[in-house]
Write a structure and sequence with these properties.
The protein is an alpha/beta fold. It folds into two domains: 145 residues, Rossmann fold (3-Layer(aba) Sandwich), CATH 3.40.50; 156 residues, Rossmann fold (3-Layer(aba) Sandwich), CATH 3.40.50.2000. Strands 2-1-3-4-5-6 form a six-stranded parallel β-sheet, with helices on both faces. Strand 1, helix 1 and strand 2 form a beta-alpha-beta unit. Helix 1 packs across helix 13 and helix 2 crosses helix 4.
Length: 333
Amino acid sequence: MTAILPPDLGPARALRVSIVTPAPRGSQAGNRITALRWAGLLRQLGARPRVLSQWDERPCDLLVAVHAEKSAPSVLRCAETTPGTPIVVLLAGTDIYPSFAPDAATLAALERADALIALQPRVREVLPPPLQAKMRTIVQSATSPQHAPARPTVPPLRACVLAHLRAVKDPLLPFAALAAVPDLGIELTLAGRAITADLAAAARAATATDPRAHWLGELPRTAARRLLAQSHICIVPSTAEGGANVVSEAIAAGTPIVASRVPGNLGLLGDDWPATFSVGDPDELGTLLRRIAQDSTFHQLLIQRTLELQHLVAPARERAAWATLLADLSLRA
């Protein structure tokens, strides 16, 4: 495979890329997963990426910062130390939602960046024109798991929520929705690490009072993908999203998504996605769950709509987007 080389360096060295993410080694957080996936794609393009928690001041030909606010110190330090280094910054969900209001350091990092990456196109709506001009959308890719989703839907409906337990993900809302459908045959499984003791206690209480509810804690990535593929639906109840990796994973698995009606979800699924609900509304979610469980035609429609999106999450598409970005930054093969 032909290596992508920085300008004027000749064939002796492949492109050195430092990818900075606030999520530490071993973390299952979305930022870390994104950084590791990008490192793999860049290796396929012939580059030499390193994934770091912060820039270590080793020379690089490209700095990629995952999460503008948390990686701003690395961006600004690199810009000051090696002002000629191209810098790319990913706008994470908490960088842009519920409102775009960066502090001085984050804004300086965004203004210094040569390119900004958004994970779904509706991010552009919240950015000022100078930053819009630097933004490009790169949808997160995913591969289809070995275990195909269950077809067709048969009782009980198997629903999963793959999210760490923190407020912005609203992971306990689906448990609350069960109260709206007390007679519904459903198995609802939540997988994710509790960030606070209060959320852990709430999850344990929900599973103790309703035998249809299950909380598995944090799962290894392989087990999480298996759970996703074996579920009839995946619920994404977040109050805000930048472009959740689990949406791409579900699309690749062919598992329909039931999502909160926020820009980060609609930017990936489309404004006309047939299975959305208002943020924080357990009754509306419960109504959707009942319809999916009892209307096989509706569930099959969701499956078909999901399969129609699979081209958007193909790894080759994300790799090509990175190749284009590197070329636009004059980091050519």
